Amino acid sequence: MLNRRLITFLALSFVTVVFFLSDLALGSIHISLREIISVIFGKGAGGINSEILLNFRLPKAITAVLAGISLSVAGLLMQTLFRNPLADPYILGVSSGAGLGVALITMASAFIPAAVTGSGWAMILAAVAGGSLVLLLVVGVSFRVQSAVSLLIVGIMFGTIAGSLISVLQNYSNPDAIKLFVMWTFGSLSAVTWTYLQALVPVVMLGLGLSFFLKKRLDGLLLGENYARSLGISIPQTRFLIVIAAGLLAGGITAFAGPIAFVGVAVPHIARGVFRTSSHKILLPATMLCGALLLLICDIITQIPTYTLPINTVSALFGAPIIIWIILKKK
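Above: the chain's sequence. Below: its structure in token form.
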């Protein structure tokens, strides 16, 4: 069994590397594998292909890997916490909070100078502020409620409130501001530059480190909160740490790349099906690998048409059938 899982993991790792290189090679201008390797190792600097590769495709491919890993692990954490196969990273309203922050910065033009609304960092910081506010509210509630289901409902309600406020802003905004906000909701991996990656990578690493720290507690939660308590696991503390980890992972990606749908809910089920285990010691790295591979495939598909498709469009085409299959299988 161990050998089979190891072989599967190595095979998926190899396929992920292949698709990472394919993501760098494919696009409106084809770049050969030899040239990619030369540029990455600093032997082929200079020229238009080198500029495209280093300043556009490489940060975009790295962002795809980070987003796939982060959203998939956050989805796994939420599904374990709520023991719900259809829970996703945004179920606690972090995405809606980030969207509210971006809506304020893009559509509240009567209160914010135009110079601020046009700033990429302003939109990122607004998304971070909005997502963090909702996350703090959910964390505060997590210590007051006894049931995970109650926490789930509260998170959904916070998301609903944020969504309603966004609708109010849209009602009073001009079409150009609404278009800017709608474009953000499509998600974009290409918007993340090297400068943004320097801020995004530490957030993702912190969220992943916290997730691996919780792997034994997550295994305990799979058997129910009563069983976890009998093992000496503090449920309020564990719930708090899970919410923080998922918030860092999902909130960080949403702030920099916009909301990316269905990856977080679909990939954990793919990992479970491929590796046939519920142990988070295996599921966490497996989910990371499957998430990175899936989003790389989605990113490659977005570049096939003449005009680049939004990443949300392609990820939904992958994720939605998986969710339907889960529902039919669970009856």
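The mean pLDDT is 83.
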